[in-house]
Amino acid sequence: MVSYSPAHITPSREQALHALYEAAELEHCLMCTYLYAAFSLKSSVDEGVTAEQLEAITRWRHNILQVAIEEMGHLMSVWNITIALGGAPRVGRSNFPLDPGYLPAGVVVKLAPFNMATLQHFIYLERPAGSTEPDGAGFEPERHFVRGADGPRLTPMGLNYDTVGEFYQTLGTGLRRLVEAHGEAGAMCGNPALQLSSAEVSLPGAKKVICLKTALAAFESIITQGEGALENTENSHYQRFAAIRTEYQALLTADPSFKPAFPAATNPVFRRPPRPEGRVWLEDADAIATVDVANSAYGLMQRLLAYTYSIPQPDPDKNLSLELGIGLMRALVPLAERAARLPAGPSNPDCHAGVTFITLRDTAPLPPGPSAGRFFRERFQQLTEAAERLSASGDARTITAARVLAGLSRQAEEGFDLSRPAPSAVVTEQTAATPASAAPSTTNDGIEQVEGDKLTLMFEAKRCIHARFCVTGAPKVFLANVKGPWLHPDAMDVERLADIAHACPSGAIQYKRRDGRPDESAPPVNLAATREAGPYAFRGDLRLSGKPAGFRATLCRCGASKNKPFCDGSHHDIGFTASGEPPTGNATDDLAARDGPLRIDPQLNGPLCVRGNLEIISGTGRMVARVTSTYLCRCGHSQNKPFCDGSHAKVGFTADGA
């Protein structure tokens, strides 16, 4: 993370943060360029494409948007690492077009419509180290230069790098050196309660960074999933863009006139610039009005995300501002698609408009408290009124945006409590909620245990999948992100607390009654639910690898868990896709019994062998099959999910057996 000399062995925290700010801006810029290209794609046969071409275009849009979402996850990882080092996330970025020197000469990012040159540029940006992929035509750097300095500097300076993957490898090296210089506790001294994780947002990369290991894992995940992935890394950004190129070339060969996108402007600006040569600025009144609302929604989203990272958990404003910020994307998408379909204006008659992604001059978070809530409520109201005026034209996309903004405005009005006092100016982890008489906890074999008056509460961290039934259903019992004791079994009615434990799908939460009432018992029906793009959720008298495993467990079916056979959330990180609604199969044959011991034996490098009375159900509870013996896929590759079809042998799946 040495931004001035890779040979320097003691990087300062300032230099480390400076490098992370560049990483955040780079991920942010990439996300915008991918979104811009996706917004320009056509969406109807009425727009000059055939049904076959439209089917391909629709698939491309989905894949590009998915990549953009993963870039948002990368950005969140960088923000979490920034906080771990004691910094505040860099939410903003420089406006397009970027000045030479802001990034290395070979890393050109600009807003451009989807076409073969733009697609080739995306492939070039995501290329693995050592790749010979050329850049797209028209994306050559304005001038060639080398960043950095020959000797050590106290002033942070930009690094030179050929690929984004190389940049992240350098950041990881610098972070190791920082930890060597200051110790892990000294280097990773930020407040983890400010970070975001999968408990708050469902994004790949949304994991808290609390040590060097988790920080390096975040960097490695970014490289593996996206920029810098090995050429044969399945489902990486590079591979997905390359697959689009193959299909695009085939369609062009069949029809050389094929144009999958509208000619949106390259790096459009909102007004005539002081140096207009070679630039596109918006003059069409409808385009200006549409982009105005879109840019304002994007700016408010940045404000909300910055505000989210300034508030420690637990705080209702943190979750509310995050939810509203992500919700604004649902308004931005139809507005940006509408802009790409409108003319830029008479000065540039050959191209269309496009959302310009204007950033605010300063995206620093507003001071937490009622004043910020008032600001957000006012701004949502202004956006809603502007969108309503736009929707008067009858355009379906602007009507959708107006409806979304109106809903978000109501949510902000109801959610931000202006009567709440402002928190202390010093942001610290939440400790006030911890009861003074908290019972001490003990830990044995990874199971934390706290004695309450009426029950003993137990928590097994390695089984937790952050389903959040505990922290949302019993927030006074389960105190997230606090220093000291966090389990308080006497803070809630014991019967209600038992119900909360029963709702925990992973079995991480268990209990033993101390008031003479019966402990949890096996359910009357053994069930295995297939979660959408997620794990198996088992309920029954479970015997895992021959040992009692309680009555609830979530077991990996994506093949990527580091804690097999249990789920550890890796399905989010790898972008695992598997239906939670598999087709109904053998669902009519009644079982002689529906309960009893359920034996689950993971096979070496193979599936889960399940023996016992079992009803396999979809995520919504629909019957899929009734079995007494079956093999369930856990490599993630079966074409007959949830059942094994032997794919584990073909893909070289490795995992311990029973």
Topology summary:
Elements: H1 13-40, H2 51-84, H3 116-125, H4 164-187, H5 212-225, H6 237-254, H7 285-308, H8 316-339, H9 370-391, H10 396-415, E1 441-444, E2 447-451, E3 455-460, H11 469-473, H12 494-503, E4 509-513, E5 527-530, E6 536-539, E7 541-544, E8 547-548, E9 552-555, H13 570-573, E10 597-602, E11 608-617, E12 623-632, H14 647-651
Parallel strand pairs: 5-11, 7-10
Antiparallel strand pairs: 1-2, 2-3, 3-4, 5-6, 6-9, 7-8, 10-11, 11-12
Helix pairs in contact: 1-2, 1-4, 2-5, 2-6, 3-6, 4-5, 7-8, 7-9, 8-10, 9-10
InterPro entries: CISD (IPR052950), Divergent_4Fe-4S_mono-cluster (IPR010693), Ferritin-like (IPR012347), FeS-contain_CDGSH-typ (IPR018967), MitoNEET_CISD (IPR042216), VioB/RebD_dom (IPR026820)
Protein name: Iron-binding zinc finger CDGSH type domain-containing protein
Pfam families: Fer4_19, Ferritin-like, zf-CDGSH
